[in-house]
Specification:
44% helix
Amino acid sequence: MAAIRPRSTVSAWQPSVPGIAEVFHARFTEHAYPAHVHDTWALMILDGGRVDFALDGERHGLGVSDVVVLLPPGVSHDGRTVTEAGFRKRVLYLDTSVLPERLTGAAVDTPLLADPALRERVHGLHLALAERDPFEAGSRLAFVRERLHRRLAGRAVEGQGQGPGARVAVRLRELLDARVTEGITLEEASAELGYPHPTHLIRSFKAAYGLPPHAYLTARRVALARRLLLAGVGPAEAAVAAGFYDQAHLTRHFGRHVGISPARFARSGRL
């Protein structure tokens, strides 16, 4: 008789701690994340199973250990289960007040930080956040931040190359970031950026960020929907406010990116 797989579960909430955009606890048995980006840092520890992910085109594997995963904002990554048992993870989404974007290059080079002291600090921060104690959590975050800076600062490098393709990719990303909700057509972007051939924009963007512009924009909209849902906005309203056509459109993409429906996600962190 085949073993029964445990049910996937998610708990997410927005803590009242400056610098932490979202807390995300999950158990996934079959979920596979598509390539996407975040506008925040993703700091993850694994509590069970194994996970495999690609960051900026390079694959990495991780099991339960003292390793902490740090994924920088704006860099394409995916993720998937490795075994039938799946994996359990805890993630903190940190804004750039905690870690500046100039450390992105260092994080791309070393997304797996083998550091028992750092993992213990991240674990302690999660415990404080689960207790809804913003003062203790803020104090613990300060020590996590200190340890991350110590690990990354010596490796910091400058950002993307400055060739013509890289420059237009940066400009297109800035344009997409400014139009997350209302969106923009490829023809409009080409005209605004002065490029007559949209295919050139797509190729340049994918070369710079690892995914095409439409996938980047979808990921940004999902991230916005997450914030709205955790702030108490209903799924239908959050869908439109985040730039999706309707709730069904949001639900389809949300399930692929987060592994749970918007409604269940919104309920997951409520006491």
